[in-house]
Amino acid sequence: MGFYLLSLSQLLSSILFLCHFQTTISSSNDSSPSHSCAHDQSLSLLQFKASFSINSSASGYCQHPKTESWKEGTDCCLWDGVTCELKTGVVTELNLACSLLYGTLHPNSTLFSLRHLRKLDLSDNHFMSSHISPQFGQFSNLTYLNLSLSVFAGQVPSEFSLLSKLVSLDLSENNNPSLEPISFDKLAQNLTQLRELRLSGVDMSLVAPDSLMNLSSSLSSLKLYSC
Ligand SMILES: *[C@@H]1O[C@H](CO)[C@@H](O)[C@H](O)[C@H]1NC(C)=O
Ligand SMILES: *[C@@H]1O[C@H](CO)[C@@H](O)[C@H](O)[C@H]1NC(C)=O
Ligand SMILES: *[C@@H]1O[C@H](CO)[C@@H](O)[C@H](O)[C@H]1NC(C)=O
Ligand SMILES: *[C@@H]1O[C@H](CO)[C@@H](O)[C@H](O)[C@H]1NC(C)=O
Ligand SMILES: *[C@@H]1O[C@H](CO)[C@@H](O)[C@H](O)[C@H]1NC(C)=O
Ligand SMILES: *[C@@H]1O[C@H](CO)[C@@H](O)[C@H](O)[C@H]1NC(C)=O
Ligand SMILES: *[C@@H]1O[C@H](CO)[C@@H](O)[C@H](O)[C@H]1NC(C)=O
């Protein structure tokens, strides 16, 4: 068993090395030098990081304080949880699930200047009953948004209906946020790509069950436990 594990890990590291080697070669021949993080993106991420503390009881299901690897002067595209578009150096994915983030997510957060995001996962952190900001509606290219298990509260903003490319939306298990009928209807009308919708624990008591019929015909998974 030990032998197999060893050779498997050696094989993996050789493959990783080869991939790295190839990337280095092909990028060294590229005329555009900007394969690394765009400066404004790096700044936004660092300010976002600075607005939270790391609290070991902030994440319940797993613990991975990703922002600790975020250091000024290094390429943000290599930071834990950050994925960039190689050509432009803009951040397209941010996965901060279980990152032990503790603090309020204000509408003026620099998170919202990362306009090119396609995937955003802030699940399993502690945002201290922050209201879910209307600013989330600015992420026009977002296909995946996960805000579950993160102590968000307040109304789900009607601006969520602007996220017309969303394929997956998870707002479950927060501090009893509510979804008003008007917001739900706009969302159901405009989020036509939606395949996965999880709203467990969201107060939808005013939403008429009938209006669920207007949800995307692409929908393949719907979780409404305790709504
Ligand atoms: C490197 O760039 C040169 C000049 O643009 C080009 O002729 C050559 O094919 C490139 N080599 C590789 C391996 O991409
Ligand atoms: C850490 O989070 C818990 C709640 O999960 C809170 O009670 C505690 O005060 C926090 N500690 C610090 C140092 O902020
Ligand atoms: C963001 O808004 C909060 C709450 O209104 C405020 O306390 C904080 O100073 C603001 N931060 C910046 C950078 O403007
Ligand atoms: C959204 O995606 C389209 C198509 O890929 C792209 O042209 C556009 O620049 C993107 N917008 C933002 C804000 O990233
Ligand atoms: C959202 O995040 C939670 C916790 O990290 C995870 O269990 C869940 O599967 C995610 N939801 C989706 C739709 O991916
Ligand atoms: C629906 O989404 C589009 C963007 O694709 C946006 O322009 C429009 O305002 C949205 N409508 C509503 C009701 O939010
Ligand atoms: C579905 O949407 C249409 C168009 O907005 C609306 O007229 C209708 O009442 C909605 N149906 C339900 C069951 O909510």
TrEMBL record:
It is a single-pass type I membrane protein. Keywords: Glycoprotein, Leucine-rich repeat, Membrane, Receptor, Repeat, Signal, Transmembrane, Transmembrane helix. Residues 39-84 form the Leucine-rich repeat-containing N-terminal plant-type domain. Gene3D superfamilies: Ribonuclease Inhibitor. Its main location: membrane. It holds the Pfam family LRRNT_2. This is Leucine-rich repeat-containing N-terminal plant-type domain-containing protein. It comes from Salix udensis.
